[in-house]
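Trying the structure run again after the queue cleared.
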Amino acid sequence: MKNNIIEYKGYYGSVDYSAEDDVLFGSVIGISGLISYEGKSIDELKADFEEAVDSYLEMCEADGVEPEKYYKGAISIRLDPELHRQAAIAAHSNHETLNEFIKGCIWKGVSSARE
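Done. Tokens:
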């Protein structure tokens, strides 16, 4: 992962900087609710991130709600019809299902992003 991502208890958060406020800030990635945090230093940001995740998990437990599992392995995407057609043709040419072809493209993109 790139340096602008932090992790705690299986939750991932963004790291951004506001020059206007001179503060680091972020939000938990991949869940429907907004869980945000901030800090003047990396250590403060990490501590607030961990506190935010812990608070979210405590709230879920108190409410009897299962914490959101944000990466279930299924996504829905919308494509331009021409891109959809071209992807289906490419998948068929590679003797793959469209799903296998798209997974391969995503793996390539993830690998490139890590470099």
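DSSP finds three helices and five strands in the chain. Worth checking whether this holds up in the mutant runs.
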